[in-house]
Amino acid sequence: MSTFRRILLFMKPYRLQTALAIVLGFLTLGANIGLMGTSGYLIASAALHPETILLLWLPIVGVRFFGLSRGVFRYLERLVSHDLTFRILSNIRVWLYGCLEPRGADLLEKERSGDVLGSVICDVDQMQNVFLRVISPPIVAVLTMGLGFGVLAWYDLRLGYILVVMMLAAGLGVPYYSHKIGRLYGMSLVKERAELFAGTSDLVMGLSELIAFGRADEHIQQLEKTQLHMDGLHSRIHRIASGSGAAIMGSARLAMWLVLLTSIPLVFQGKISGVALPTLMLVTVACFEAVTTLPAAFQNLGQTLSAGLRLFRLADQANVSSMTGDGHSISSESFDQWRTSFQTVEVIFDRAPYNMRTDLLRFNK
Length: 365
Known about the structure:
Elements: H1 3-8, H2 15-47, H3 57-100, H4 104-110, H5 113-126, H6 129-155, H7 157-205, H8 207-212, H9 216-268, H10 276-287, H11 294-324, H12 332-351, H13 354-364
Helix pairs in contact: 2-3, 2-6, 2-10, 3-6, 5-7, 5-11, 6-7, 6-10, 6-11, 7-9, 7-11, 9-10
């Protein structure tokens, strides 16, 4: 089973909540489109100096309605989606603990404790992007594109086609290249972060040995190099995100101009009203809000899959270790007995005279 499908299994118990969060996200963007469209129509109509203000009561009410509903839908969408994310993270943490706890001592003999700590903390936290930044944005973008196509096609079918083509170019082309460029950076960032956790854990747990052998400064310098490498990866990822955002904003402005240039002849032909021009332009720009988060979704996909792969590898290794039963791993009772015996020997050794300890060390050699 692929890593992404295994991640999706944690969302299966919350299918209704997932669908509700997606619908609320779509309603939020739909209210924003309605707000921009009615605002443009209201401004254009008011510029014509109507005989009475009653002729503008419908767009005025529309602006108020969409403005209020946008805030309400945004709040509900955030509430539902973040509650869903916290529930998914809770299930992942409980599942991972259930996999690691029975064979924790045996697992720590094979894996570095810092690497395990990095997976339990950072890799689990990376799973919060599964719904918020990987699954929800593409679905909401598709629904928003359908809504925008319906609005513009109601005036003229060519306007709807222009919007769809430009949104597909901005929503698929730009995220694809950003994912292709930033995928390796995201995977490297996850590995470097795990190495930083492991190195820090080794420094804390073995500080006395490192100082005794004069390797503490060297170990600290290695951690600083790892942190500098992580900073460089973060800078590259942010540059890719900035470039992707600029490309999408440029696509939105280009789509707005294409819609305007296509609509002007329609106004002269009498097919659409002149006051509809601001509405068409603002609706076009508002639709692109749905694709602005897609480059980040594709970038987070690489980091999320890499973190999920590390989590499942760690859990599968613990499960395999618990099912083998080859006798090489010790139980918790025997481990406690061995630890008590070792502590007893250590106390006796520390309290022994110096010549006796020297004889014991020679005998050990």
